[in-house]
Amino acid sequence: MYLIGLTGGIASGKSTVARRLVEHGAIHLDADQLARRVVEPGSACLRAIAAEFGEGMLRADGTLDRQRLGDLVFHDEDARARLNAIVHPAVRELSGRLIAEADAEDPDAVVVYDVPLLVEAQVDHPFDLVVVTSAPKRAQVSRLVEERGLDPIHAEARVDAQIGDEERRAVADVVIDTGGTIAHTMSQADALWVDVDRARRAKRAQPSG
Questions:
Q1: Amino acid 117: pLDDT
Q2: Is residue 29 pLDDT above 80, yes or no?
Q3: What is the residue extent of each domain of the chain?
Q4: Which reactions appear under catalytic activity for this entry (predicted)?
Q5: Strand pairing partners for 129?
Q6: Which pLDDT does position 208 carry in this prediction?
């Protein structure tokens, strides 16, 4: 198996790059989706969140009130750290299990693990390659306004709340510039796949043990 860690700031083009790699044959794991799975009704994570932040974080149907919890932790660094201490280990365990399953099913698979908080959460899976998508702040804000309907002030606050690009670039093996056209981003993803396929074949040719 060849494992790619894909990260980048909000609205920096991660999904576009991931989709392109999937078109080439990669398996896509999305940390945001896994984070939703670990807090499903009845889960240990959801019980821990209710115990830590109060039953008011649950809707009447027993599901997590994401809006209320998000509003709390967005403005409270300590609360965000307490939430992350509950959710991140559960996501790490689930992602590790899914990666192992993909490897068992197809030892030649390319798995792209899309992790927005790869740096912040100190995700330590044995990545063969770490890819960072990077766009100028103005492009990120514009996308949040045009594609997700945020007002400009909120959009800028969302971008500013994340770590800077330089910290992500420090862990990157490859940086994909997503500040231009979709076609430019796609062409970089295509070139990345060629390199990954070459590296995967080289890895497969290495003697085991």
A1: 84
A2: yes
A3: 1-26+109-203, 36-107
A4: 3'-dephospho-CoA + ATP = ADP + CoA + H(+)
A5: 4
A6: 63
The whole-angstrom separation of Cα 101 and Cα 3 is: 13
SS3 176: strand
Statement: residue 209 has pLDDT above 60 = no
Binding-site positions read 11-16
The H or E element spanning position 129 is strand 129-134
Buried b (16+ CB within 10 A) or exposed e, 87-111: bbebbbebbeebbeebeeeeeebbb
- The CATH H-level (homologous superfamily) assignment of domain 1-26+109-203 is P-loop containing nucleotide triphosphate hydrolases (3.40.50.300)
Feature table: binding site for ATP: 11-16
Contact 154, 141 (CB under 8 A): no
Helix (H) or strand (E) holding 25: none
Query: For the range 23-28, what are the long-range contacts, defined as Cβ-Cβ under 8 Å and sequence gap of 24 or more?
Result: 24/190, 24/193, 25/110, 26/109, 26/110, 26/111, 26/112, 26/193, 27/102, 27/109, 27/110, 27/111, 27/112, 28/112, 28/114
What average pLDDT does the chain have?
Answer: 92
Closest to 185 measured CA to CA, from 54, 37, 28, 13: 13
CA distance 137 to 108: 37
Amino acid type, 165: D
pLDDT, one tens digit per residue, over 37-58 is 999 999 999 999 999 999 999 9
Q: Does 61 have pLDDT greater than 90?
A: yes
pTM of the model: 0.89
Q: Say which of 133, 178, 181, 185 is annotated catalytic.
A: 181
- The answer to whether 133 is a known catalytic residue is no
